[in-house]
Amino acid sequence: MKFAVAPPYDRGAPADPRFMTELAETADRLGFESLYLSEHIVVVSDYERLHHYTPDGDIGLPDDTPFPDPLAVLGHVAARTERLRLATSVLILPEHHPVQLAKRLATMDVLSGGRLRIGVGVGWMREEMAALGVDYSSRGRRTDEAIRVLRTLWGTDPSDFAGEFFAFRGARCFPKPVQPGGVPIHVGGHSEAAARRAGRLGDGFHPLGVDLSVLPELTGVVRRHATLAGRDPDAIEVTLTVSLTATDPAFVRRATAAGVDRLVLSCRSLGLPEIRAEMERIAIEHGL
User: Fold this and answer.
1) In 103-125, which positions are buried (b, 16+ CB within 10 angstroms) versus exposed (e)?
2) Are the CB atoms for 120 and 91 separated by under 8 Å?
3) What is the pTM of this model?
4) pLDDT of residue 55
5) Residues in Cβ contact with 21 at an 8 Å cutoff, skipping those fewer than 6 apart
6) What's the pLDDT tens digit per position in 195-246?
7) What is the C-alpha to C-alpha distance for residues 174 and 157, in angstroms, rounded to an integer?
8) What is the distance between the alpha carbons of residues 206 and 192, in angstroms, rounded to a whole number?
């Protein structure tokens, strides 16, 4: 099992350079595999409560919660760590132009020595997408096409692409990512559509807000669609987010048996001393 950590957004931690530096350096020192950050470009007041991971559909945070650009924060963290992988869960892919994003991600991968991984999702806040001029109804198709654009620009030179949303000919995009095959792309989400997308296009699947009891059904969808696409289903990693304080050896054994490759430990509401103590406990229990 690989262990990752996610900072407490409810404490404003991702926008606190001291907090993020200490968290990342602690994770690096203790042998944690990666650090995960989330994204909202804007949170629109009075948004329709469609959030799928809370009972009332609310995001569970005040509208003015700091959501700094995750790639900028990961760049800061990269300069202060040596082995820690840098990840998103999730980057709202239809809100980004993939040609520009391909350059940003490749640059980060090169400067970090090949430590970048991105989790992507289609997004759920209709008002946020409207503020960015993105059509909500086509966000799934746009996400699929954006993944293909990223892989095209990272994998071929010169690159040609002709799709519903994006098109170019003879594009030369350098530097290329350090990692063979480009920056790994994991698909986040709780739905069968996300599972199908992970099987067809992803290097990993990150089911969000999903209990272990329903995980086998979703990973079965991933595997079926990977096979249909001529891909190796065993090569697709499964990542699950759980509470840092609720993670004990018995749960880790259950998650491993369910096919989970990585646990992202959420530090919601915790301060740095509590986080460090819990991370040290997990490092000892699992021999990190």
Assistant:
1) eebbbbbbebeebbbbbbbbbbb
2) yes
3) 0.96
4) 63
5) 76, 77, 80
6) 999 999 999 999 988 889 999 999 999 999 999 999 999 999 999 999 999 9
7) 9
8) 12
